[in-house]
Amino acid sequence: MKNADYIITPDLPVIKAIERINCNSQGIVYVCEDGRLAGVVTDGDIRRYILKGGDLQKCVWEMANKSPKYVMSEERENADRMMEKYRIRSLPVLNRQREIVELCFQQKPKEAQKEQLGMPVAIMAGGKGARLYPYTQILPKPLIPIGEKTITEHIMDRFSEYGCTHFDMIINYKKNFIKSYFLDNEISRDVVFIEEQKFMGTGGGLKLLKGRYTSTFFMSNCDILIEADYGEIVRFHREKRNLATMVCAMKHVTIPYGTVEVSAEGTAKRFTEKPELSFITNTGLYVLEPAFLEEIPEDTFIHITDIIQKCIAQGKPIGVYPVAEEQWLDMGQMDELERMKKRLCQ
After folding, report:
1. Boundary-marking domain end, from 46, 71, 105
2. Shared domain check, 87 and 52
3. Among candidate residues 62, 79, 105, the one where a domain is terminated
4. pLDDT tens string 66-96
5. What pairs with residue 126 in β-bridges?
6. For residues 159 and 71, what is the distance between their CA atoms, to the nearest angstrom?
7. Side-chain half-sphere of 114: how many Cα atoms within 13 Å?
8. Cis bond leading into 134, ω under 30°?
9. pTM of this prediction exceeds 0.90
């Protein structure tokens, strides 16, 4: 990519800065005023800004780090050492006018040891996967292949990197397919199958785990994968003392049509060509406390989102941990399934 892909102006809206970060895939952009380096914004800065309730339409300068690290062109040979010292992924090289003449990136960043959480994981795998017909008329959604592995194995492997190796899988639709696949698999995994006797929804199915957990646990839908730091997510959850934390993605969409606002008299008030919308959406990954299971009614079809809404209405601590849109892979629909395949199988 060119340097321009990493450079923004101070008046750019935060949401546009997020788009630029997503596009360059390096998690960073530099704020330049009149061509001169003035600040830096990372994906971590964006996350903290959102958690504080920041407005995504405001100018990025309001939340930028105004003391960016850099190296002068005559000291270019020190760039790698500085990136290692400050544990940063990128460093700009400036001329005497403070203009960026080069961007340095860690060529082979050291793989940090992932925090070993050792937490159990509940995987909701009982649904029919209707949005993925006709695939799921043959295979249950948890067994749909993404490359050489099923989506569920990708999920398990990701959790295993953090020492989360015990999985409780709620199953129903084509449950014997699922059980046979994992029981006969050459890779042995610590999986316990909990069978629904009837379709219970993500909340009702989760209730079947009551009494199995004595500490914090993960819950994941079986069609999503989050490429974020799970240790940081759990740390946030515990620091906030949340009953539940939803991992949510920052989403930006452009409606491909012109929209019309109409008055009560039937006249056009406003026309907007291809409006853009920004919002935060639930991904289907949660960190939960055992007490959350007490909020779910017995033997009832209900979704976890309904339980969360009830807890919010009662003033119970429900947290939101935002991740970038590119960190959320969702195969719940056909086009997203293809996108997931490209990301995981390249």
Report:
1. 105
2. yes
3. 105
4. 999 999 999 988 888 898 888 888 999 999 9
5. none
6. 38
7. 17
8. yes
9. no
